[in-house]
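INFO batch 0412 | record 1 of 1 | parsing
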Amino acid sequence: MANEAVIIELLGNKGDPVSFTCSDGAVITKGDLLSLDDNRTVSGVSLTSHAFAGIAAADKVAGDGQTQIACYTNGIFGLYSDGAINIASGVMVEVSGVNVVEIADLAEVEDYGKCVGKALDSVAATTPEVIPVRVLV
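INFO prediction complete | emitting tokens
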């Protein structure tokens, strides 16, 4: 993948990792934003309509026999903004594509659990860049 989250600071108990089920055929890169699909099962985010589960704490190789993956749920992470819109410091952000965040639509966030966290810095609309986000799932 590309644009994986970068750990800035793990909070709580080393990022409060939570174990989830994943497909043996899944390919997940450490730092991928993961979506909660169903029955405590996660996958890489491909659709923005899924709830946010956390950030992959390790790589997962397809066909390796592993069907569990830990997700960080508490920390400060450098997340990628594609530069489509201004993001101000202090606003809530949500997943807007594969490993990309944007300003959260609070009506949708409430319904779908898509909120990733709070932006700790500002980014201009024309500048794709990494922005620090306080993640707490």
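INFO post-check: The mean pLDDT is 89.
INFO record closed
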